[in-house]
Amino acid sequence: MPADRTALGAFLRSRRDRLTPARAGIAPFPGPRRVPGLRKEELAVLAGLSPDHYSRLEQGRQHTVTEEVLEALSRALQLDEVERAHLRDLAAPASRRRWAGPQAPQRPDPGVLRLMGVLEHVPVLLLGRRSQVLARNALLSRVLGAALEPGTLFARWLFLDPGARTRIVNWADFAAAAVGALRYEVGRHPDDRALAALVTELRRADLDVARWWDDQRVTFRTSVDKRIAHPVAGPLSFGVESVVGPHDPDQRLVVYTVEPDSPTARVLPMLASWAPAPEAAG
């Protein structure tokens, strides 16, 4: 079974398992149920497909998937916009996918760097492929307690550095969204061997990553609240917003926003005035 169709089938099964007949708005088919959500036959009826056609899709035996079928499945499975995009990526024929062989180092977009320059009053981070840090300001390092120099992988710090779990109070919420973002990127770049190796490394090293990966959740540009336990400044609270760069969809500007005149907003100038940025842990 081709690897891309294996991923497509696994995603369809996971979305089908989470959707009950009641939530789908249909009466359950008679007979004993052996699945937590919809049966294949129930989903096929909802999507207007024959049961055999849907079975071939889920089993990876249907090599061509039309836009009409993808749209019907998206409606039947009640997918959100990110999940719909991920489904299209997984169903794309191999001929439309880019070979991810040796690549030139990714350079930060100059316009985004200029934008970062006017955001020095809040923590800012520019991420590239595979969560690589392309740029960050000093305030981000001081808030997170890690240098995160350009070229390092943010995902490795988030999952493999014990300090990340200590510093980020709601680490599980933030980390689960990061796994969903990695899955979305894998769907867009299924032939990226370095990305696949990173996912394998993280799944083996962290049981939480393995569990979230198996959930098939996908996220993209998700707004996430982030609470920080800072050893000097005390509790900090941010709304983290992610924006895709205008010239390179594989670059994301991550901005830690704060409420005006909040305790966090009042303490950030003190953090920004510190001379040295902290050294990276490890």
Overview of this protein structure:
The protein has 282 residues and is an alpha+beta fold. The chain folds into two domains: 3-96, lambda repressor-like DNA-binding domains (434 Repressor (Amino-terminal Domain), Orthogonal Bundle), CATH 1.10.260; 110-272, Beta-Lactamase (2-Layer Sandwich), CATH 3.30.450.180. The chain contains 14 helices and five strands. Strands 2-1-5-4-3 form a five-stranded antiparallel β-sheet, sandwiched between helices. Helix 11 packs across helix 13. It is elongated, with a radius of gyration of 21 Å. It starts with a helix and ends in a 10-residue tail after the last helix.
Describe this structure in a few short sentences.
By secondary structure, this protein is an alpha+beta fold. 47% of the residues lie in helices and 11% in strands. It has a five-stranded antiparallel beta sheet with strand order 2-1-5-4-3, with helices on both faces.
Index terms:
2 domains, 14 helices, 47% helix, 434 Repressor (Amino-terminal Domain), disordered C terminus, Beta-Lactamase, 282 residues
SSE order and pairing:
Blueprint: H1 3-17, H2 21-24, H3 40-47, H4 51-58, H5 67-76, H6 81-91, H7 110-117, E1 124-127, E2 133-136, H8 138-144, H9 154-160, H10 162-167, H11 171-188, H12 193-205, H13 207-214, E3 224-230, E4 234-244, E5 252-257, H14 263-272
